[in-house]
């Protein structure tokens, strides 16, 4: 899958053609338009709020906002820039989700990690629990994202994880290029500074290791061994779903921390048809789009 902000989607029809047809009541065009953009919107939402159900709600709400405003799209920018601008505004203004209050700042997260008792595993035990240790790693890093402010979080997700450059990022968030670069730099440094001071994966001098925390997490149902949230075989990694260009990366303070975030999972296995049916069968959407 190509970078959604830098490459054209693979389709027989362009976004402009799909928008035009959907605006004239073509249900198939509307469905194709939704299916093309939905995975990216969902993955931004998932990283933004961490909980899959909350991410689904945000994705549906944002998609409906795009469709209800479709008649105002004037092709002054690409459709995806215009659409993602609506998505980002909705995410920023949406009611805070429970996980955002659980991981509300880095100090709180640091205290949580320090209060989590260590239970070191032997090399053999680490091998046996490798899947759950990786889940612990992904879970912790996902929590770090929520420690950023909402604005920082979106800039980081777009700029670091989706590899949007400062031109695209600034257009989507409606800020200057310099402002986008500065916010991305600050978010990267905040994440890196926390990991450099706490995470043994980034700085070997730090005592915190995922394998030391995983037993407590599993015993207390923080990690559900029968229903992993992140480390699942059907999920790809961001670096596999989004094409990265090392020359485009700005102000990477530590490549090891960046690589860890590029390894976070990218979901494209979710039930897209359920999403789709909920939206196109919405009475307001059907009336508004005059679907045939």
Automatic annotation (TrEMBL):
Family membership: Belongs to the sigma-70 factor family. ECF subfamily.
Sequence ranges assigned to domain RNA polymerase sigma-70 region in this UniProt record: 33-97
GO molecular function, one term: DNA binding
The protein, known as: RNA polymerase sigma factor
Cross-referenced InterPro entries: RNA_pol_sigma-70-like (IPR039425), RNA_pol_sigma-70_dom (IPR014284), RNA_pol_sigma70_r2 (IPR007627), RNA_pol_sigma_r2 (IPR013325), RNA_pol_sigma_r3/r4-like (IPR013324)
Cross-referenced SUPFAM superfamilies: Sigma2 domain of RNA polymerase sigma factors, Sigma3 and sigma4 domains of RNA polymerase sigma factors
Tree of life domain: Bacteria
Keyword Transcription regulation: yes
UniProt lineage: Bacteria, Pseudomonadati, Bacteroidota, Flavobacteriia, Flavobacteriales
Biological processes, Gene Ontology terms: DNA-templated transcription initiation
The keyword Transmembrane appears for this protein: no
Keywords: DNA-binding, Sigma factor, Transcription, Transcription regulation
């Amino acid at each position: 899958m190509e970078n959604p902000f830098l490459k054209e989607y693979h389709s027989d029809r362009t976004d402009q053609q799909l928008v035009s047809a959907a605006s004239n009541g073509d249900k198939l065009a509307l469905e194709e338009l939704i299916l093309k953009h939905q995975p990216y919107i969902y993955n931004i939402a998932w990283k933004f709020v961490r909980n899959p159900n909350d991410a689904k709600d945000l994705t549906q709400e944002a998609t409906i906002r795009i469709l209800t405003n479709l008649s105002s799209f004037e092709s002054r920018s690409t459709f995806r820039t215009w659409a993602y601008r609506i998505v980002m505004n909705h995410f920023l203004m949406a009611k805070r989700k429970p996980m955002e209050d659980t991981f509300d700042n880095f100090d709180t997260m640091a205290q949580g990690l320090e209060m989590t008792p260590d239970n070191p595993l032997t090399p053999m035990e680490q091998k046996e629990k490798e899947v759950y240790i990786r889940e612990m790693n992904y879970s912790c890093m996902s929590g770090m994202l929520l420690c950023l402010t909402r604005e920082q979080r979106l800039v980081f997700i777009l700029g670091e994880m989706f590899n949007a450059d400062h031109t695209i990022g600034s257009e989507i968030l409606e800020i200057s290029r310099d402002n986008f670069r500065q916010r991305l730099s600050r978010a990267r440094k905040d994440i890196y500074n926390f990991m450099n001071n706490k995470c043994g994966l980034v700085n070997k001098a730090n005592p915190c290791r995922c394998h030391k925390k995983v037993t407590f997490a599993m015993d207390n149902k923080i990690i559900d061994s029968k229903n992993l949230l992140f480390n699942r075989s059907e999920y790809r990694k961001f670096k596999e779903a989004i094409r990265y260009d090392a020359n485009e990366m700005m102000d990477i303070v530590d490549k090891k921390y960046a690589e860890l975030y590029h390894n976070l999972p990218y979901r494209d296995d979710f039930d897209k048809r359920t999403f789709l049916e909920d939206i196109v069968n919405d009475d307001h959407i059907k009336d508004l789009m005059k679907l045939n």
